[in-house]
Amino acid sequence: xxxxxxxxxxxxxxxxxxxxxxxxxxxxxxxxxxxxxxxxxxxxxxxxxxxxxxxxxxxxxxxxxxxxxxxxxxxxxxxxxxxxxxxxxxxxxxxxxxxxxxxxxxxxxxxxxxxxxxxxxxxxxxxxxxxxxxxxxxxxxxxxxxxxxxxxxxxxxxxxxxxxxxxxxxxxxxxxxxxxxxxxxxxxxxxxxxxxxxxxxxxxxxxxxxxxxxxxxxxxxxxxxxxxxxxxxxxxxxxxxxxxxxxxxxxxxxxxxxxxxxxxxxxxxxxxxxxxxxxxxxxxxxxxxxxxxxxxxxxxxxxxxxxxxxxxxxxxxxxxxxxxxxxxxxxxxxxxxxxxxxxxxxxxxxxxxxxxxxxxxxxxxxxxxxxxxxxxxxxxxxxxxxxxxxxxxxxxxxxxxxxxxxxxxxxxxxxxxxx
RNA sequence: GCGAUUAUGGUGAAGUGGUUAACACACCAGAUUGUGGCUCUGGCAUGCGUGGGUUCGAUCCCCACUAAUCGCCCCA
Length: 419
Description:
Blueprint: H1 13-32, E1 36-37, E2 43-45, H2 46-53, H3 58-62, E3 65-68, E4 74-77, H4 82-91, E5 102-111, E6 123-132, H5 137-154, E7 159-165, H6 169-183, H7 192-200, H8 215-218, H9 229-244, E8 250-251, E9 263-271, E10 281-287, H10 291-294, E11 302-308, H11 309-318, E12 331-335, H12 340-352, E13 357-359, H13 366-376, E14 380-384, H14 386-391, E15 393-398, E16 404-408, H15 412-417
Parallel strand pairs: 1-5, 7-8, 12-13, 12-14
Antiparallel strand pairs: 2-4, 3-4, 5-6, 6-11, 7-9, 9-10, 10-11, 14-15, 15-16
The structure holds one RNA strand.
């Protein structure tokens, strides 16, 4: 038997229902914020991710699905959503659109070659939004509010917004050096992972769980001390806008993100739910004011997030939230007539009038069809045989009260409509 | 990339170094039933992840591989 590739999942049945329902919900919400849907390729030139996401990041150095196609092109399955959207923004010259800023959203698969565990897959679905062309802190707050409001709509409670600022690029570089100078002389006292982190991404050292209580962590330089006044004010503004939207958040000075392109605002939304796995970041994002330039576009500020739909599904499960409320079958039509086509056409017409209708496709006898009715539990059911077709009268039975009423065979829709 | 645990039918699972691998649910056939829901009867893994090895003999012991689950790193 051929099985699915490691780290992938099949979503079907109830889970599949939730998945598509969430996507519709997301689309509705984004429309209200006036974001436009964008669909970009699932694979891009490898170079895009190397330059966009960052040459030294874990994602690019050891997690991409790279391949060479039959035309000898170096391609990569996208490991995240932003780089492709930015590429499209530049390629389609959206920076010249009359309406600025450009507000986009997308939903699609991302691929990373990692060891699967709870909340981590090799193919996962990301919902993301990006705003390009405005550096206003209002945009930062709006982006965060989209995620928060989605969670509100679906009733998720155990989530916390963690917020931080990395400052502008200049202060970030200065701060990086300060960290290296601080840790380097005594690096031997820290764990092996920290030694690697100091080389690759010094900010991450602060995030270490093993050495969290080490003296060097407490005496480490703070981001805020390296901020320019502008950066400080900017961060304050973001907080004011969030307050205005009544969004709760926790400022976490140790919050850094793994992708190279971030500057200023960064945030994560984490699940703090009993029994949730250790991969608890459901949504993460921030500002990237240099990314468009890095990818050869005109200097354009940007802000966005990515959200893991599968993790969202896990959170819903952990909080036992039943997303799908009304998916009960309206009507089952048992077809025991010798003129199956006539009954079949009645089934279709009731469906097209807006009701959820099921029938039998296996030419089962009445007993078998009753079993289906029992399993599917429709609100109503009707048995149509030759007698009913001849008389034009059917008995419609309320499956809850077991009450039966005789109506005309073409009055089914009317009957259901007034209930 | 590293670590831990696991791998028996459609599902949940019990089990043993040696004739027919428990039990439950589901499913199928039939009986009964005021069109189904209850009850009863019967059926349902020639095989215990894959490949090697140990043994007279392995689903049960050993090794490798694969996969799953969870954790580290990292991230959605």
